[in-house]
What does this fold into?
Amino acid sequence: MAGPAGIEPTSPSSKHGILSIELRTAINKFMIINLDLENPDSDYLLSLVDQLEKKDSSVRDAAFEKFKRQQFYSPLLNQVMFEPYWCTELKNYVDRVYQPHFTHTLHPVIVRLKNRIPGHSKLACYMPHTDRDRAIGLNFCIKPGGPDVTTIFYKERANLNIKNAPYKSYDDLTVASVNQLNDKKWVALDTHCYHSVENIADERILFSLGVREISLSRFKSIYPNLIV
It folds into this structure.
């Protein structure tokens, strides 16, 4: 169940069914778009994480133990600890700074993907998954998590009717695009496509605004003024 960590965009085909460069480029246009939004106050957001971290560590540890019982989990992957943070202060900040640009409700969260075993022989990953509670993620990378972190999108989409956790084995997926989304820029992602994050050396922190009601293609038609 080895993941495709370290794959370069020009890698040849492999058992993971990597598509041609031309086809990946075409598919990528439907998965990721660049946005023109105000950069967040990263120092403020990190201060919220520091405050919330002290309250919720036991809850997050329990969530990770539950995740390890999932069908596709393997300790060989060095799976990250997924730590979501939200609070009233964060919602108020988003309502003031970002919500005025949107007619759809924004659902904010700060996400930390933490390498739990920094000395592991393999850099950490967040294995292929979908975000079933939202259709689009508007993401701003506060901390990349290392120089070689990549976000991989796969051709397959989730069956939204499933009740179990939306994870899938690498071996059951076809790589559509390999991206470095590590700059301090806003991007919108189709989070119903399977995607993974690879090569996390320490911790990756994202500020993310979820949109639940519309697809990425509809987003582009409704908010052309926000598209770069």
Observations:
- The first helix runs from residue 21 to 28.
